[in-house]
Amino acid sequence: MKKTDFGRTLRRPKRYFEHLKSNGGAARCHILADQGISVDPARVEAIKQFRRPENKTELLRFLDASGCGIGACLFQEDSLGNREAVAYISRTLTPTERHYAQIEREALGLTWAAEKWSDFITGKTLVVADSLSRNPLNSNEDRDELEDEVQVYVNFVIANVPVKDTYLQKIITAQMTDSTCQKLREYTLQEWPDRRELSNEMLQYYQYRYEISISDDILLKNNRIVIPPSLQKEVLDLIHSGHQGIVKCRRRAFTSVWWLGLSTQLANLIKSCPNCIEERVNLKETFIKEPLPSRPMEKIAVDLYKCNGKCQSNGAAEAAVKIAKSIIKKNKNRNIDVALLNYRATPLENGYSPGELMMGRKLKTLLPQLPGNLNSRISDADITKILNFEDDRKEKQRYYYEKRHRSKDLSELKKGDRVWIIDIRKYGKIVREESNPRSYVVETDSGIYRRNRWHLIPAPYIQDHDIQNSPQIVTSQNPSEHILNSDSTNCNFTKSF
Fold it and tell me: pLDDT, tens digit, for every residue of 245-266?
């Protein structure tokens, strides 16, 4: 036992704190000797040997990630909030770790420090002294399990890339000969220059510098293989080999390959693929609110159709035509005029019947009613009320329609554009745009058709001789004598005024 100047007596074994280590392998921090408590010299060796910066590159060691080592500093905060350094650690990176992306090396430093000091920092704030990672000690200490675990993950990523070994070697060879990939390798293994020093071509990759790494000689962006320009067209065809849509092809690409502009190139490829275009269906377009006429006979829509045929009616009169067809079918053996009169005298949601809106008064039917009701007239105030009601009703229709169908406006077409016509399965060329919204006149090898934009899919790869030789799926009698209506497939000629 020995008594100190402070009146404390300690057992001799407790003087050698330097021999105590935590179960997790954390290094010792202080030495307690006859002269008192002192910092373990091994813990501050990295600071003592830190070389004074003599140029800009060395100064940047204090500011940027390291390509040669990792390091950390452990602080302890006193009751006044002041932080004092307790210990420092650093080590050089293994050859495998030097191939990591910059952000991965920084994450490695955090993980390594946290494992080293797990007994001290659990549940506390960790402060990383990243400058030590730029000037690590040349330590020969055995690497911990972290390196092995990381390497196992890297091997797992490479082994599970959906590419054959022979094709993978082809990609590596192309990367080695491509000038851009060579620069990316150089910057990843050494250090990225300041962005102001980069060429315009390499500046595009600057934002991805933390995600680019090298593993088994393969240049990667995260876990995706970087494809050089010489193989990009070939890889695009591989991605689209199953003729899936844009979203599915993008998802497939995002699991294995990467290059600048991949997403846009995939979209353009699929939009120009004949197999995909001929089986595609356009999204619903946004709702067009048809304003209510301000007076009777202001606007008239006529739709001629086969009563027993299966055709979509003229859009301008579609709802009324469906109702009329239903009434006619249900009253084949009865007085159709009476059935139509009953419909025209039945109030709509706005409280007024179609006949009343047309004639300005109620219609007399076979159903008994008070004579005074037949004398009522629609006033100007009633008209304003009706117009406001209908505008609100159609706005609600627009909202719920677009919400249900997730609709959007399709791109406009111009004269000369080549298109695929969905309903008749033929190629055609835009002749002109009609006055009706989203309506186009299209020329095909079997005649001229009027089609809504929803029926047309751009087909930029088609030429005039392809249109003339396109398969004739649906034909009409004397098609060249008139324009076939956009919704008149297998129906009589339709026209609206």
Answer: 999 999 999 989 999 999 999 9
